[in-house]
Amino acid sequence: MSRRRSSSPSTSTDAGSATPRNRTPQPVRVRRRSFGDVVKAFLAFVALLVLVVGVPLALAVTRGWPLPATFEPMEWLRQDISASTFLGILTFVVWLAWAQFTACVLVEMKAALSGVGVPGRVPGAGPSQLLARQLVAALLLVSATAAGFAPGLSQLGQSLDGNQRPAAAAAQQTPGFFAQQQEQAAGAAAAVAEQASHAEAAGSDATQRGDTKFYRIQPPEGRHHDSLWEIAERHLGDGRRYKEIFELNKDRAQPDGSRLSEASLIRPGWIMEMPGDARGGDLVEMPDEAPEVSPGVRQQIHDYARTGDHARGGGGSGAADVSVPTQRPAPAPAPANDGAGHQRERQHATPAHDSSAFGLPEALLAAPLLAAGLLGALGHRRRQALWQSAFAGIGGRRGMEPPTPAGDALDAQDALLVGADPEGVRLLDRSLRGLAASLAADSRPLPTVYAAWFGNGDLHLQLAQPSGRPPTPWQPGQDETFWVLAKDDAEQYGDSDTAAPYPGLVSLGTMDGSRLLLNLESVPGLVTLRGDEADRAAVFASVAAELATNGWSDRMTITLVGFGADLTPLAPSRLRHLDDVEALIETMEAETRQRRGALGAAGHDSVLTGRTGPAQHTRWAPHLVLLAAEPSPEDAVTLAELAADAGRLGIGYLVGTGGGELPGAAWEMEITGDGRLLAPLLGLELDAQLLPAAQQRAVVELFVQADPERDPDGPDHTPPFLVDISEQGRPAVYARLVGPYEIIGLDTPDDERSALLHEALALLLLHREGVHPRVLSSALWPRGVTDDVREALVERLRAWLGTDPDGTPRLGTDDTGRLTLSPSVVSDLDVLRSLYHEATQGKGVDSRAVRGRLLTDALVLVRGPLLADRPEGRYRWLAHEIVDAQLPLLVADTGLALAGFHMEKDRAEKAIEAIDAALRTAPADERLWNELLRATHALGDPERLTALAADLIGRGGARGLPPRTEALLDELLPAWRDAVAAAG
């Protein structure tokens, strides 16, 4: 279809050319048809009539039926090739070309008139189908109802009667997208053109007189509802000016007695006062020159006018203008509620120059889902490194602590801790898996989801097409293509082993407190991103990092082309880097063929029908392609052909472009230099989620440092804080964290703040390298807190800890602004680490007696798990820590070292006592059980060894014994299987 533009006179041609365009037919605003449009439509009709009807008639009259009357192939081959034969062959070719073109016309007409799906591809009909599409588009522009299917944005805010509860009210204010819209017929378009022309003249005159203008909210038409954004876009030239309309009408009594309190909650029949420069579109003079407006409406407008500021001396004359549209343009997003529930989002959106950010990377602070994924993956990597190091042997350990980051890497780690929203990731993951499980239980297929809006725990899914009523506790949204789940309802879902239904969802940015996640694998075609290279790279890096580490996906392949070779450490099993577009095309052609064949063999129409059903298989995992380098025209055509069927196959394409248009683009976006992600024809203007180059390098450095394969034979790592374990090193404040939490040396604060101060001190004791103030406040108040509350807590904590004898505060601040504890504030975990380090790397190395005493003292400190009696609902930040893995390993190492110390002197019973003490804190450590088997074997008591083997088998359950333990039993007690079976 030809490109259509808004008729708003305030939008210049230059401005319009600078915005990205969606090349798939869009549900866009219908402009007034000009005489040229009518001429084009007439010529298109004549051309179609000649090509579709005239050509076969002419062939039938001049040449007749092209095929011979009899079927004798051998006789045909023996005939001479004459001019008549040649003309017959040529006639047959022309008939074939006509049939192909006619098929193209029918396909394009069906797609345009139905408004469902992109036009199908007629085999081998590239130029013919393009010509047919242009002719059909020109014809339907003024002479038929036409609808396009493509990503579009529609407003939520008007719910279906009776299907929404108060808990989901805020959710209904969130914008959704990919709406479908029917354009009006030619008669309606002509009427609108005439009315708009009259309205422009009336609006111009009214503006010169300074008259006040009014607009009456229109009732819904189909699936679309009026919104302040689209009113501002239509009459003020910019949808972002909706706030001006909101301020003019806020809290004023409407004809139905209610009042406007939130910009997204407007009702049909309400009156809106407009800014003085409102014009264009369908504004008409009121009341005398608007005969189509009923007397009742005129009276409502006059009554409403008396409630505004202009009625108290701020306005002009009593005459007014009112907008009475008969044609509704494509909807644009209404602003979401910005209540207290979005405090986390506002905190993340702190401007970079704001002092409250303390210099932390703003890009990571503003990306809670990305930060949670990175933080979870980093914690997993560090735990993996700890366990691999543990099983490498006591002598070759890298140390109990991961390397302490510094510089940009430390800032990035702090930003991840502050910005991460693991609760949001948990809700999103459980909601999606719960939906898949509910549909599978009802034998219903998964609907195709194009995108999700996620804000304040409420989740909105935009479906490609109506899929019936959603399963409980999901609710219908504004129309049949929206499914909504409120946060309170999402809490009903627990952990599920259902496969992740939509692993291709990835965050693009935020809009009015809600986060947009696009399902890359389901978009019918290419998604393109244009803008400066550095800005595009920041978007691509963010998308790649989130896809590689998110918590709502099971498995996927992410192919990076033209960027991201250094991102591989984030997820080596997911990320794959290719050097050029040629290699990508070769790879994707093979995979496209393979997936088509697999779907056909399995009898599935798309990956969704096989992903969560009984036939779950890795071949249904998505493959997402991120191409940062702009392809050549030839490669772009090939990619468009591959992407045409990609949504069904679970393959998604995000392609960068410097400014040119790419064929087959279903959604075109632009990233601006100020971090805005724009798609005007979709009504999208987001605060983009970015991962700039500096933060990208810092995050990668964190993962590289945590790599378990990195320098495995390096020197032992010294704990970040060593305590003076001599008699002279008695601390001023001693906190017992290993077991029940106790503090010695401080008075107990008042009951109201005691728990908060204890939690803050525990966090500082576990991070002797220092804690950023934002990290501290984020740990204590996950939903955000103001600067003054945070600063008051720090001062209260400083006063509680007091000062050392030399007057130095025990809570200080280092050069980077991080909070640190003085050496006189010590925890039992610090002492435990110091004793083990001194026994294995210090004085205990050269003195056996010293080593035994130090190890014994260390094991005595172990009274149970870390912070064993912590109250429920607090200390949630421990989920980000690896101390839960460090402490059992440290205790196990101490027990093993002490057992080895006793076994050197054949004191097996003493060794067993040491191992039993360690097992109380580290019961899952296989090394302790193996050492216990060796010590028991040294006693020379086969019955006791057999009883221990039976106990181990009982603990193993269905999983059985670990391979190392089985091999050790085969060595120590060859007949253990028969002995255990006999013992029963």
Automatic annotation (TrEMBL):
Keywords: Membrane, Transmembrane, Transmembrane helix, Two-component regulatory system. SMART domains: BTAD. The chain crosses the membrane at residues 41-61, 81-109, 130-150. One of its GO terms (biological process) is phosphorelay signal transduction system. The keyword Membrane applies. InterPro entries: Bact_Kbp (IPR052196), BTAD (IPR005158), LysM_dom_sf (IPR036779), TPR-like_helical_dom_sf (IPR011990). The keyword Transmembrane applies. Residues 1-29, 307-355 are annotated as: Disordered. Pfam families: BTAD (PF03704). Residues 7-20 have a biased composition (Low complexity). Residues 827-973 form the Bacterial transcriptional activator domain. PANTHER family: PHAGE-LIKE ELEMENT PBSX PROTEIN XKDP, POTASSIUM BINDING PROTEIN KBP. This is Membrane protein.
